[in-house]
Amino acid sequence: VLTGTTGPGYNLIKNGPGNLLLGGSAASTLAGHTLTINAGTVLMSQDLNSVANLAGTGTLETSGTGVNKWFFINNPSNVVFSGTIQNFPGTTARGLGFNKTGLGTVTLNGNAAFNDTITIQQGRVNLTGSGISIVSSNGAEAASTIGTVAGTAAVLSVSNGATVTFATTTANSYGAGLTVGNTALSFGDLR
Predict the structure, then answer these.
(1) Residues near 180 by beta carbon (within 8 Å), at least 6 away in sequence
(2) Are 115 and 144 in contact (CB under 8 A)?
(3) Strand 183-186 and strand 177-180: pairing?
(4) 40-47 long-range contacts, Cβ below 8 Å, gap at least 24?
(5) Which whole-number Å values give the CA distances from 163 to 44, 48, 134, in the listed order?
(6) Distance of alpha carbon 189 from alpha carbon 28, whole angstroms
(7) Coil, helix or strand for 47?
(8) Separation between Cα atoms, residue 5 and residue 29, nearest integer Å
């Protein structure tokens, strides 16, 4: 168990098959630094803020306690994560939300199965491969949004068998771009 806030100034590298719990009563942060999960699982008991780079082939998931958690990535350069991002197994009540800022691209090409809000403020998120199956069923949580920073492009790309379902009771907002396969869909400011 790693408690308290990590960094700024520190990268976090997880090796080996076991679990690492980011615990404590406040959000953890890796402001401007890298989270590398080479093996095993990193469990989030609170939000994980300001990660600049996500790498590896391990698993990032919410812990089995509390309510939904957010993963915040602010990447100025391109990032590829080939691991798994998911809710705590067997429950949708411990959902994981994904919030992206920064002008770089995040490509998730491993496995992703989470059910909270997806927000892309800047840059691009590529979801590629049949291991990606996201159902954004946020209920009373904030709506999923793409393009929330004025004058900045934001794109969600879904391809090669990946699926994303926005099954929510609140209005989703698409102020920028949504790409499905190789086709860019233009919504303008459709809400």
Answers:
(1) 157, 158, 159
(2) no
(3) antiparallel
(4) 40/14, 40/15, 40/16, 42/12, 42/14, 43/19, 43/88, 44/69, 44/71, 44/96, 45/21, 45/69, 46/22, 47/71, 47/72
(5) 24, 24, 6
(6) 34
(7) coil
(8) 6
Asked whether the predicted pLDDT for residue 185 surpasses 80, the reply is no
What is the residue type of 46?
A: Q
DSSP 132: B
Question: Where does residue 91 rank: exposed (0-12), middle (13-18), buried (19+ CB within 10 A)?
Answer: exposed
- Quickly state the pLDDT bin for 161 (edges 50, 70, 90): confident
What is the value of pTM for the model shown? 0.84
- pLDDT tens, residue by residue, 103-115: 999 999 999 988 8
Residue 183: what pLDDT? 47
Look at residue 44 and tell me whether its pLDDT is greater than 80.
yes
**Angstrom distance (rounded) from CA 180 to CA 73:** 22
CA–CA distance, 23 with 81 (Å, rounded to integer): 23
pLDDT of residue 191: 33
